[in-house]
Design a protein that fits this description.
Two copies of one chain form a homodimer. Chain A is an alpha/beta fold and about 375 residues long. Helix content of chain A is about 35%, strand content about 15%. In chain A, strand 6 and strand 7 form a beta hairpin. In chain A, the strands form four sheets. The first copy, chain A, has a seven-stranded mixed β-sheet. Chains A and B meet through helix 1, helix 3 and helix 6 of A and helix 1, helix 3 and helix 6 of B.
Chain lengths: ~375, ~375
């Protein structure tokens, strides 16, 4: 390839689909436009953000503003640290026990589906896992009530996955305090609704759903939980070390942090988390309303625990699923295929999905049902 | 901020500096232009690469091509795995012992400066570290000859840092085989010169110098070294698990992989690694020639071990360093400040630095010396 083959496409050729990917997921278009405009020259600096030293004043300001905006959006109190890490939610499945177990040998987990199960499997490398509650018996169709939790006597923490990206199950309630810290994997619904941070000891989220590009993990940790990391915890994943070093004990994923910061600015421009929650409730009601309208489509989750972010649904047969997906793609409704472990369809309708995208999806569902129902 | 505040700057306002950052570092401008052009719509897909599912056909093809091009550039044999991980070089300082120690309790390290020292400190969490050779006594001004290595009887591997980014020391030779695998931290000079992969059991590199954006780590590992990871190694950092899962046991840093792939294409267009090495030799000769011309400037490294990539240098006094840096900035010579632990100046002249940038730097050095020499 020559240099000229690296030239950008001609202006005006841009087209955009409605992107229902579960993650990496759609980014708000104004954010992408801003990234595009600044790509070779960030605000007169003469360089791309991805070319900046992480310790230079420009990037330090970008990261500081991203953190401040994230704190403001979720109302994160000063006694919680915000860390910009790597490794995603699956990395945190190991990093959480490495940081929180201390001398204890047990932790409690609530099992609400695929991601909880993954978290449990990874935690078992480090401790005894006590499953405090599980919805497995009913096919993970619900969130077990907190009154069902049976905590071990000596667990270091309780881990919950507050939105199951594959199963489409979301906690509609915030846990009340128990005798140990509650850790939330909020990867796939963070910033989609208000968060009562003080209910949790740790909240973590891979960025690639509602925050920004893959490769960035946000961790919110109560400062009382620092200082407990095991010796075998790698330094870049040690909350205490990273909190003391402004998340720069290693080079942070600078470009992803920059994009996340722009997403936070966009979210503020939408009116913040309370406003985006109203939009998300509206979008979810539209889609679930169509799913439930006649009984042609099926979503297995109990009504009150249905996720506003990830909506799995199925046509009456797998062949019809395939046909629906082909037609969706042809209509610019992208990445609707269900996760490989469950099949069917999954519409992820994160903050960046406009109502028009859900309307287009519902339109195609209605048309499809008319033909095949 | 409103949506309109997120609009890109007007066309024609782009300006670019010569960027001497040690990392995150300059990206070839044709790559940035391509990223910019494709940012909202990758080749008619209707979405940005950062919005694509990592398991979709488009992204899978992007990653496969990046791997194939990287393999071709360095001539990586089929019995080596290439992994796309996270956590950077500092992450690898823990990940290497977690993967390679197996049942052994000791590893050997060669100490050539700041980054070797960091690697040693991190490895001490996991094993006894035997320092097989060190240049500390001479102020890290050289690479100890391999004949000086005194290996422990039972070390699981030998770790070397083949280019010290801060000290500006680079191995001019390839180690010959010893009775255990040699592990190379090649973060800051990978792809700047040919690499004899078969001399090493593992080669790793943080991307943010010669590969692409921060947040991506490339690991090249001999397949015979798989299967040794300790139980406490987190799954996303377990070479065996990642090798078996196409580096997708967690969501990989997709956008960084895409940019890295474009850098690989750009490098091929330059004629590959042999051609870029000639350009790097030429650039380094120009800069060291100026440093040595009169004795005004100082670089402490022994001539044959001087890094072609990272060139620390000092004016006669710290005040003159400061004055030089101010003038450099005004002339569009950016991020030349030396690392905070050593001061002075550091010019990182990676693959993406054009000869014109080094010429401009040398021009300013000459002018400065005329005034202050």
């Amino acid at each position: 390839m020559t240099d000229s083959a690296l030239a950008p496409p001609a202006a005006g050729s841009v087209h955009r689909v409605f992107n229902f990917s579960a993650g990496p997921a759609a980014i708000p278009e104004p954010v992408l436009q801003r990234v595009q405009g600044e790509l070779l020259d960030w605000r007169g600096s003469g360089m791309s953000v991805m070319e900046m030293s992480h310790r230079g004043t420009d990037f330090m300001a970008i990261q500081a503003k991203a953190e401040a905006d994230f704190r403001a959006l979720l109302g994160i109190p000063a006694h919680y640290k915000v860390l910009f890490l790597q490794g995603g939610g699956i990395g945190e499945n190991a990093i959480v026990p490495l940081n929180l177990l201390g001398a204890r040998r047990r932790a409690d987990y609530v099992n609400t589906g695929h991601w909880s199960t993954r978290s449990i499997a990874e935690a078992r490398r480090y401790c005894d896992v006590h499953v405090a509650a599980s919805a497995e018996a009913t096919g993970f169709d619900r969130v077990p009530a907190q009154s069902e939790w049976q905590l071990s006597p000596d667990g270091a923490y309780v881990h919950v996955c507050t939105n199951e990206t594959i199963g489409g199950v979301e906690y509609p309630w915030t846990p009340h305090a128990v005798d140990r810290p509650i850790v939330a994997d909020a990867s796939s619904h963070i910033l989609s609704r208000p968060l009562d941070v003080e209910a949790y000891g740790v909240v973590y989220a891979g960025a690639q759903k509602n925050i920004g590009p893959a490769g960035l993990t946000l961790v919110v940790v109560h400062e009382d939980l620092l200082g407990r990391a095991r010796a075998e915890c790698p330094s870049p994943f040690n909350y205490t070390v990273q909190a003391a070093n402004n998340s720069m004990i290693n080079t942070p994923p600078t470009f992803a942090i920059y994009v996340a910061g722009l997403v936070f600015e966009w979210l503020q421009a939408q009116g913040g988390v309370a406003a985006i929650e109203r939009a998300n409730i509206d979008k979810a009601a539209l889609l679930y309303g169509e799913i439930d309208r006649t009984g042609f489509w099926r979503n297995p989750v109990r009504a009150e625990d249905r996720s506003r972010m990830n909506v799995p649904f199925f046509a009456p047969t797998p062949d019809l699923d395939t046909l629906f997906l082909e037609g969706a793609k042809a209509r610019g409704l992208a990445q609707l295929k269900g996760h490989r472990v469950v099949g069917g369809m999954r519409a992820s309708i994160y903050n960046a999905m406009p109502r028009a995208g859900v309307e287009a999806l519902v339109g195609w569902m209605r048309e499809f049902e008319t033909t095949h129902g």
